[in-house]
Specification:
The structure is a single chain. By secondary structure, the protein is an alpha/beta fold. The chain has nine helices and seven strands, in the order αααααβαβαββββαβα. A five-stranded parallel β-sheet has the order 2-1-3-4-7. The longest helix is centred in the C-terminal third of the chain and has 20 residues.
Length: 242
């Protein structure tokens, strides 16, 4: 829908759950070879019989607009700007820099250590000269660790786990969580942060929905535009990275 609104060509392939590993690899190879396609992403998670890592490795890294191919993961670690950065962490960083400006010297806590958000988010913050702590389910006294943070990024996947007691007064809170719960007999979307209690303490906080989600989509399409420019020998667009 967003591609259509922006005038971008988009192809959505919905394969049956019975699709084999080789059939899916064949689709990826076909998209790799298609000059009309500049960005490829495979929705996660696939059915259990599919080796997701093998599918990601099969994507042409020049079209890996999700930033999960090992080549792009390595380029992020090396701070090589020729790679693609995962969209959600990139969107979070752009939000932080827009709000705070220079992040150098700030204490940041990232809750969650997934390769999708937690690890790349920590690397991006390190590159901005933050002092970064990666916390997780086994962190001792998690609330105390979080209360020391100027920047708190929640990507743990537990609905409303972090309350205002976890937030340092004036801190900036980025809630990456998307959790579907039932409340008062109705389905509701909530984050990893209890918004009301955290918002009473934080200097700034992203809502769920309507916060990180739109930034993820924007960064995905920005990566696709950059991939198109690179494929056609055009100057890369300015202002599309953190």
């Amino acid at each position: 829908r967003t591609c259509r609104d922006l005038g971008m060509h988009s192809v959505k392939l919905e394969l049956p759950a019975t699709t084999t590993q080789e059939e899916l690899l064949a689709v990826v190879r076909q998209l790799n070879a298609d000059p009309a396609i500049h960005g490829i992403l495979v929705q996660s998670p696939p059915p259990r019989h599919i080796d997701e890592a093998a599918i990601i490795r099969a994507i042409d890294p020049r079209k890996d607009v999700d930033g999960f191919h090992p080549e792009n993961v390595a380029k992020l670690a090396l701070e090589d700007p020729s790679g693609f950065v995962p969209c959600t962490p990139l969107g979070c960083l752009m939000l932080l820099k827009d709000r705070l400006g220079n992040l150098s010297g700030l204490d940041a806590v990232v809750i969650g250590r997934s390769i999708l958000v937690g690890k790349p988010m920590a690397q991006l913050l390190l590159a901005e000269s933050c002092t970064v702590t990666i916390a997780h389910s086994r962190t001792k006294d998690l609330a105390a660790v979080c209360r020391g943070a100027d920047i708190l990024v929640a990507a743990v996947g537990r609905p409303e786990m972090l309350t205002g007691d976890y937030v340092k007064p004036g801190a900036t809170v980025i809630d990456v969580g998307i959790n579907r719960i039932e409340r008062d007999g109705k389905a509701k979307l909530v984050g990893d942060v209890h918004y009301e209690s955290a918002a009473a303490v934080a200097g700034a906080i992203t809502p769920v929905p309507g916060g990180v989600g739109p930034m993820t989509i924007a960064c995905l399409l920005a990566n696709a535009l950059t991939a198109c420019c690179r494929a056609n020998g055009l100057p890369e667009p300015e202002g599309l990275t953190a």
